[in-house]
Amino acid sequence: MAETHTVQPGDRAIAYLTLTPSAAVLLLLVAVPTITVIGISLQDVGFGEMSGPWIGLENFAWALTSRTFWTALKNTFVWVFGSVSLEMMLGLGLALLLNRTFALRGVARAIILAPYLIPTVVAVLVWRYMFHDIVGILNYMLMSVGLISKPMVWLASTSTAMLSVIIVGVWKFFPFVVIALLGILQSIPQEQYEAAEIDGASAFQQFWRITLPHILPVFLLTALLRTIWTFHKFEIIYLLTGGGPLDSTTTLPILVYIKGFADFELGRAAAIALITFFILVVLLAVYFGFMKRAEARQ
Amino acid sequence: MARVEIRNVGKIFGNYKAVDDVSLTIEDGEFVVLLGPSGCGKSTLLRMVAGLELPTFGDIVIGETVATRLRPKDRNIAMVFQNYALYPHLTLYENIAFPLRVAGRRGDEVDKKVRWAAGLVGIEHLLARKPRQTSGGERQRTALARSLVRDPALFLLDEPLSNLDAKLRHSARDELRTFQERVGMTALYVTHDQVEAMGLGDRVVVMQGGRVRQVGTPEEIYLYPADTFVATFIGTPPMNLIDMPGEVLGVRPENLMPVSFFGQESGLRRMTMLVSRIEFLGSDKLIYGALDDPFGQAKVIARLPSSVPADIREGERAHFAVREHELRSFDPQTGLARPAPIPQRASVASHG
Ligand SMILES: Nc1ncnc2c1ncn2[C@@H]1O[C@H](COP(=O)(O)OP(=O)(O)OP(=O)(O)O)[C@@H](O)[C@H]1O
Ligand SMILES: [Mg+2]
């Protein structure tokens, strides 16, 4: 019989010992910035400083009572909800389309990926050009089909800036949804549809009773990831509008940036960042509870 | 239930002929088995009858209707798939109810039908479970129950037992047969397992390379194979084929017996075998060897009941014989059976 090794008390110590360096690095990477932010949020940090007098929760109190914060919060929800719901709908529609067999399907799939691969800066430049009120192709096309009668100022008007930003965000990130959903769609056994076909299910019934239940977990997970990422998204908005005009596209991450690096109120910026973090955690908790129930029903 | 006619049906994929000019009639209430090696076109033929595949040529008639171009749901058929194709997120109850629900039936009617079908296949106690919480045999029965609730005119089954282990397959086959007799279903059943085919089929259709090689009762197919393919495809071990000048002789291993076994009988063809190997299988012994002239060193296998006393040793010669009327003869060019005496039903029955 081969010699078997039983776990000795000393083994555990060795295990911990060997894990310590990487655990320490991880802790430093996560903990140091987090603690620093928490620390800063409790101080009145002014121009050109990294610390200041301790003022307790004053920064938080300021945030929760300022109109700027609440506007940014509302903007964030409009931005997240608008972008994610449009991305998910567009992504699902295109994934269903691309899941069918047709000539040039491979080419179509490659083309759809393009927006996701183009660097944000490049994409933003192109879109700013397309949104331009005089030379932009968007106004040109809308006017030539008669949908609008005079050029619209897409990015510089408080009523259309958020819509414009959402359009670019959706355009940039819907391919992610397509790819995720296409993967799960292709894992549905063809036999399920054939059985349903024989059982007399219509195309809609097949979608509702086979496709949807099958892709639901991945659909929800994708929506979750997109929600987190969109919540954090900074550069698309900042590069397109800088949060303006006025504060019509100022989301929480933009506000953090403006407070910290334009107004040089680092303490207030840190407080807003922490509140943002907290909101996200609550959202995720709700979401995971929801997912768990959906999974249990599966 | 209905009669089904397959008229000169063929299917070409690209430039590959998967099914080549098949004609076949399934009588009302008949259980017909499609048997053949992998890739011979059984599933393709079945799928054309189901409407999942459009024939390249030919017609399919179900009942009084030319169904060739009808959608599957308009053919009044049911199909049991190899992997059962149950809906994983629905309970067994909802799986069985599915055809009724999509047809817009509601309430009591659905419930009665589902419980009736589940009762027929004995899964009433499992209805609240999801497919992944059940065994392969239970899934197979669920698929069967689902196919029953619509009172289909025709059942199509594509290797429904192939995912079960040997023991379960045996009992499932038994159940299926009992069930078929009770319901009187018209069925087209695909398998590549000859034991399943012989045990289940009223008639067996042997296919190869997209073509039908023979149609007949299990007895007819076993005793009077239409060609050398059928002769060697059916039976384990298969029929011995012995090349002779101008003909190919066919001998079933169990018909090749020691001369002593026949006593004073006449009408025997004697054969001397140089025995190379003896395999003991329990109830039978397999004797491998080569025949002396005039049988040209042909390699053969004889199958002897262990209860038959025989003084046979490896490496020695032994004297065997076959009854003349149990010999089969095939054309060496075409492989087709030489017009053997047309089997009388009575004599067939006495063999079976
Ligand atoms: N959609 C298709 N496109 C191209 N060739 C196909 C297609 N479906 C089947 N074939 C080919 O047609 C032939 C017959 O296939 P079929 O599935 O009918 O075989 P089968 O007799 O059911 O085999 P098995 O016992 O392995 O299931 C095979 O050679 C297969 O590769
Ligand atoms: Mg097959």
Automatic annotation (TrEMBL), chain A:
Pfam families assigned: BPD_transp_1
Record keywords: Cell membrane, Membrane, Transmembrane, Transmembrane helix, Transport
PANTHER family hit by this protein: BLR7065 PROTEIN (PTHR43005), SPERMIDINE_PUTRESCINE TRANSPORT SYSTEM PERMEASE PROTEIN (PTHR43005:SF1)
Lineage: Bacteria, Pseudomonadati, Pseudomonadota, Alphaproteobacteria, Hyphomicrobiales
Membrane topology: Multi-pass membrane protein
All copies of domain ABC transmembrane type-1, residue ranges: 73-287
CDD domains reported in the protein's UniProt record: TM_PBP2
Protein name (Swiss-Prot/TrEMBL): Sugar ABC transporter permease
Sequence similarity: Belongs to the binding-protein-dependent transport system permease family.
Subcellular location(s) of the protein: Cell membrane
Native source organism of the sequence: Alsobacter ponti
TrEMBL record, chain B:
GO-annotated molecular function: ATP binding
Keywords: ATP-binding, Cell membrane, Membrane, Nucleotide-binding, Translocase, Transport
Domain ABC transporter: 4-234
Domain of life of the native organism: Bacteria
InterPro entries attached to this UniProt entry: AAA+_ATPase (IPR003593), ABC_transporter-like_ATP-bd (IPR003439), ABC_transpr_MalK-like (IPR015855), ABC_transpr_MalK/UgpC-like (IPR047641), Mo/tungstate-bd_C_term_dom (IPR008995), NA-bd_OB-fold (IPR012340), P-loop_NTPase (IPR027417)
Disordered: annotated span: 332-352
UniProt cross-references to Pfam families, sorted A to Z: ABC_tran
Keyword Nucleotide-binding: yes
Alphabetical list of PANTHER family matching this protein: MALTODEXTRIN IMPORT ATP-BINDING PROTEIN MSMX (PTHR43875), TREHALOSE IMPORT ATP-BINDING PROTEIN SUGC (PTHR43875:SF15)
Record-stated family: Belongs to the ABC transporter superfamily.
Protein name: ABC transporter ATP-binding protein
Originating species: Alsobacter ponti
Phylogenetic placement of the source organism: Bacteria, Pseudomonadati, Pseudomonadota, Alphaproteobacteria, Hyphomicrobiales
